Amino acid sequence: MGEDDIFFIDIGPIWNNLEGDGGETFVIGSDKEKLRCANDAREIFHEVRKYWLKTGGSGRKLYEIAAAAAKQRGWVLNLDLSGHRISDFPHAAVYEGPMAEVDFCPSAQLWVLEIHIWNVDHTYGGFFEDMLLDDSYFS
Question: Structure pTM?
Answer without folding.
Answer: 0.91
